[in-house]
Queue: 2 jobs
Job 1
Amino acid sequence: MDFGWTSEQTTLYERARAYARAQLAGAVEAGDGLPRALWRRCGEFGFLGLSVPERYGGLGMDALTTARLMEALGRGCEDTGLVFSVGAHLFACVMPLLEGGSDGQKDRYLPRLCSGEWVGANAITEAEAGSDVFALKTRAAREGDGYVLDGTKSYVTNGPDADVFVVYAVTDASHGYMGLSAFLVEKGTPGLRVGRRFEKMGLTTSPIAPLYLEGCRVPASSRLGAEGQGAPLFKRSMQWERACLFGAYVGVMERVLERTVDFARQRKQFKRAIGKNQAVSHRLADMKQRLDSARLLLYRACWLMDRGQEAELEVSLAKLAISEAAVQCGLDAIQIHGGMGYVTETGIERVLRDAIPSTLFSGTSEIQRDIIANHLGL
Ligand SMILES: Cc1cc2nc3c(=O)[nH]c(=O)nc-3n(C[C@H](O)[C@H](O)[C@H](O)COP(=O)(O)OP(=O)(O)OC[C@H]3O[C@@H](n4cnc5c(N)ncnc54)[C@H](O)[C@@H]3O)c2cc1C
């Protein structure tokens, strides 16, 4: 077993972290849409195409290095909303395009999506199809040389800013899992409308909105992969997202732990640093233990993915551990910072607000536990 990074990986990690810290500092609570100038900078470094081959404008990294670079992004950039938008774009739009797209689709979309010229989004969830993702009602009816899409998607990250959407719809209701297909639908297509942006408790720079498809006609050439291949494509994109996107939360936890340790060493009460109290130092020790165990689960999952081995169980274990550790990290950081932790302008309480949705998106904690229990034979 080799726990070492190559010198190339180490250099890249350090460069990515320094770039994120210096170039991606922005209005973390702006709440009025994706910061496009920062988005372009993400593209300039290569964050928007970490796992995409260089010929399409990406960095050509494997899953493990991609997760490590997402970690650098989450550690260096305090705007976790921006980081989340990058992850949703890359793992739920760009990667299915790379893995399921035709040469023509890849040539048209990937360079624009990797450079930051375009923003990508993914639309599967519906009012009655959340965790039960295969209960979709959106239909794609074959008509002549194309399809007509009708339905409503409830939460689309990047939706208000997106130039292209990966939309999942039922093409054959009698085929269940194999009755779904994926489509690339461009902004401005007649019949496609993005709804009003939702306000939410965290990840405020990452816009989210519903998507309406009303008689939305697309050519057959916009189908992503073969008809009926939507579900396997989605499943694979969730594997990328559940693994690599959550690398960012490992980076966030590391940054917050460092800041909280510094605070515990400097803040004095009863004439000594608060970190000298076991109640505080043990809380920090537990934060470190949760961070490192979640991180190791992530690296193992990505290592298996890179070997082309089955990794469903390991990816779910990592996603569950990271998201729940991130929420606990937010709570612990507030507790240790005392009143300061609760004051918005210190940025500490935001850690918790940005962490809470991580136990919901990419499959809730309950769904991850279901997957793990299934693998246990239950
Ligand atoms: C910040 C954010 C960004 C998102 N971005 C996107 C996006 O870009 N594209 C997209 O398509 N969707 C997106 N989503 C939607 C997300 O995927 C869903 O919210 C998620 O799948 C859960 O679905 P739901 O909200 O309908 O909850 P439900 O499925 O209704 O679940 C409600 C509760 O019931 C529990 N539950 C449900 N079924 C079971 C079960 N069988 N056993 C035990 N408990 C169960 C759940 O775990 C949860 O606690 C996003 C969500 C958030 C919060």
Job 2
Amino acid sequence: MAAVSAEPIEQPLRVAVLAGGRSSEHEVSLASAASVGDGLLARGHRVVWVEVGRDGAWRRDGQELSVTPGGGLLGVDVVFPVLHGPFGEDGTVQGLLETLDVAYVGAGVAASAVCLDKVLFKELMSAVGIAQVDYVGVRAESIARGMEQIPRLGLPVFVKPAHLGSSVGIVKVDDPAELEAALRQAFSYDSLVIVEAMARGVEVECGVLGTRRHEREGGGPLAFASEPGEIVLPGEWYDYKAKYSAGGMELKMPAGISATARERVRELAVETFLASGCEGLARVDFFVEGESVVVNELNTMPGFTPTSVYAKLLDASGVPYPELVERLCTLARERHEARRAYSY
Ligand SMILES: Nc1ncnc2c1ncn2[C@@H]1O[C@H](COP(=O)(O)OP(=O)(O)O)[C@@H](O)[C@H]1O
Ligand SMILES: [Mg+2]
């Protein structure tokens, strides 16, 4: 990847780091957010820690916050919502931040909402012609209609709640007799469930980082794709345990795929990022078998500690962690400024 230029630090920014959140990924978010805070401090910025409780309240130093539409947030220059999953990564918090009229890091309302809905995301990918596995969306109010289409997927299939992450609620079904129980479990998390044909091959992830306006205007790319990394798993698939226990997975860089597949992954990562309207950052996940590359999903706020896959991919591609978090804040400020210039 063309190295991201290490621009001189602008004036020190005051950045509100949103941490925690209402989803089952609360603890993961706290770890990601603490790292983001450290990265910002290392670059000379000031950090305002705002913790979002499991109850949904926002607190600073233990005191509940109240906000005013149009009034910004605690006078900060940028908000960094380091929240994963529903009520954080799904456009809801992004909508609140838009209403407050404050610059914030990452995908906007629509891209966040689409990318956190596994069915909507796949429908968008179909519309733009990006390769993926076959799938069936099943809604709680019309289960029978969805069930009719599932046999065409063959076996095994993966059954997933549409709006969760961290592999929570996902079941791999090998035997048709297990399908009903898998659907029941998925519907206990969500009113929308996706059933997917099983992809073959290895799992490969690619980090995408937005570019600065002057870089794009100077003829540079619309976004950078990192070196792809391969997820090497001890078990059959990337379940919760593999994601969060020590030694649960190994990130192999460079990925053990052909040069053609590597370029295809990087190209598709940027294409997927742009087609879904993402901004700032994303981690795009793929299945690669030989030269065949299919998209699995896009995370608009992937795990964000320095040892998380996204940060490791970017670091290996020439963007150290503190510069990464700083650049994301700069991109957020540029977007906010650009949007203010439009007429409504
Ligand atoms: N269609 C599929 N084919 C093969 N493996 C899959 C498929 N869908 C999911 N998996 C496995 O399950 C993991 C989690 O699925 P994913 O859709 O990425 O959910 P999450 O948003 O929870 O990360 C994947 O990383 C992969 O190991
Ligand atoms: Mg995933």
